[in-house]
Amino acid sequence: MVRSVKVTVRLFAGLRERAGADRVELELPNDARARDVLSAMGLEPGQCIVALDREYAEADEPIRPTHEVALIPPVSGGAPDVIRLVEVTEQPLDPAVVLEAVRDPRAGAVVLFEGVTRDVEALDYEAYVEMATSKLEQIAREVADKHGLWGVAVIHRVGRVPLSEPSVLVAASGAHRGETFSGARELIDRAKAEAPIWKVELTPEGPQRVEGALPEWPS
């Protein structure tokens, strides 16, 4: 026998107007998660956010009979900017910073990529910082729009980056893992190919400049 839980869901704004009431009763499986409230209401992730006890809930957060459950439609102020963090810096990089930047209560997936120094004692990075920052922002916005991401972040380090330390961090959040993985991969691939950032490997034989192809020339 499948057990179920009954919950009262508070509605606001357009949801309240469409339902003709400020709350509805739902019967959900006993192991229901926040995303199941959206499904039961015929809503897709991203259309609304589930709140439990007046706090935004993660998609897989369990629903308890004691919870005060509410559906939060988009607010009048608009959604936060999807470009959460873009930076070129000389400081060591902290993965926790970019992960926190892209977290979003609408997201069911968060992806982090770390590009780290390997095989050599260190890498020296040089950048046209102002242009690199602008280009990374452009790439981040285009990738976010293409893959429907909720948040993206990219930080690139310049100066000397020792062995095993990250030189670049990319993070993305989205409704599902497929588009989030794809978006994060495209973001790092394009950042490496298009941002004016150069590196020199520090080897026992001396410094070795690493060169790739020129970025595509605008027509």
Task: Please explain how this structure is put together.
The protein is of the alpha+beta class. The protein has two domains: 4-72, Roll (Ubiquitin-like (UB roll)); 83-210, Molybdopterin biosynthesis MoaE subunit (Aldehyde Oxidoreductase, domain 3, Alpha-Beta Complex). It is built from five helices and 13 strands. The protein has helices at 13-19, 34-40, 95-102, 129-147, 177-194, and strands at residues 4-10, 23-29, 49-52, 55-56, 69-72, 83-89, 109-116, 122-127, 151-157, 159-162, 166-174, 197-203, 206-210. Strands 2-1-5-3-4 form a five-stranded mixed β-sheet. The protein has a four-stranded mixed β-sheet with strand order 6-9-11-7, sandwiched between helices. Strands 10-8-12-13 form a four-stranded antiparallel β-sheet. A hairpin with a 2-residue loop joins strand 3 (49-52) and strand 4 (55-56). The protein is elongated. The mean pLDDT is 86.
